Amino acid sequence: MGREKNGDKYLIAADAVDNLNTDVDANSDRNSDPSSNPSSDPSSDGLIVLPSVTELSDVQPSDWAYQALKSLVERYGILSASPKFRGNQAMTRYEFAAALAATLDKVEGLLGNAIGDEYVRQDAITVRRLQNEYASVLKEVRERIDTTEYKAAEVEANQFSVTTKLQGQQIVGFTGGSSASNTVVSRTRLNLLTSFDKKDLLLTQLESGNNGGDAISQEQRENVNLLGSNGVFANAGGLDYTDVESNLKLRRLYYQFRPTDSFAIAVGAKMSPRDFIDKNSYGNNESLDFSSGAFLNNPLIVQNQIDRTGGAGAAINWNPQNSKLILRGLYIAANANQPGTNPNRGLFGDSHQASLEAEYNPSNKLKLRLQYTNAVVNNTDINALGINAEYSLNRNAGVFGRLGIGNYAGFNTSLNRDFSTYPVSWSVGVGLRNVVVPGTLAGIAIAQPFITGDVGNATQTNFEAFYNFQLSDNISVTPIFSVVTNPDNDKNNGIIWQSALRTVFSF
Fold it and tell me: How far is CA 504 from CA 34, 239, 475, in A?
């Protein structure tokens, strides 16, 4: 049930570079052995010596090299082709050497046997005279060629090659529900994946949308918007890809490299916590599985006000070989670009998040992640502990869940009041593959993103079910049904339901 995540996209670029180098190496190996290159043999491929250049179907008298070809055929009789010359086709060094050797042998033979016309003898006399006159120059040229070949070999051995791949994704959601008319939600992302040495990644992501909203987010936006897609405390709306600005903006910009095979470091000006921590094989990709943020991440561990906008920071990942333990850590500041004269901004000011995660994989079926987050958001100090678990029942089914317990204290500038609360967040779900139709992906889950008696008069509860059809490698269609009770922890908001048809185009 595992699949590609945003934070692992450097593997795509690395695989692409690996495949490219593999192809080049294969060609090099094939060309390094004359016996494996049939074109180096003048008699291969059924080539025959032609009596006239006019017999070549792809050579015309108007071609710039026509006279040269005509001379090789009529004077020396050494041009081989059948039935085309293919003048624009590349040739290997073996082919060039074979053709040159054949030419020289033919000329020497003609001279030695006194066979050939006057043109051949005059050409030979001219060549020998030029060789004598320019002997010193030719010697110097040979030395320069030897030096150049040596330097070229050195450059090839230490060449610096950059490979960049473009990936794009368009999500279009047709949605409607209670308290809202039918609408369209759209989000577009372009990824530039650049690799310098096959083990690194420079990720540049651009994003734009249509500022679309759905029934659930509309209800959550009517007041303070505590738990909507841009919520103060959580991203627990209906569709994660709502409320995306129409202006094209930089969404992610970071560089990830590996000092060792087991250790990865990422640094950048635009990073999101969800790219590096709190992953899950069944609920972690809004373009493939669940669409609500309540099932994509633990809202206490991945702080929405930082994850949604991104920030400058760094992340590490340590995965020792032959070990069942993986350690991760990150520090991201959403307002790192703000002037240092403001005490509430800057790299270590409001808002920032520091997180640690330890993943333990006792078997191929079970994965456990223990998490801790320390953050300052809207002048509120946050400390939270989390558990993220998944268990594969079989090849086609698995269960997952997240649990978080936090401590929020301080004067919250968004709510404009002082409070101290200990919120709890949880979610559980089931992921299924090949249900009825082979190649499909389905899931159903329930969550309560922010349980607390200090904010609101009820507890919001999210339900979601989806059924993903992969129509091709580039297109998927997913019917989604969602229900949210007590949106934004307000019992006056009642029950909101909505349906959506998510279409994802990838290229």
Answer: 49, 14, 6
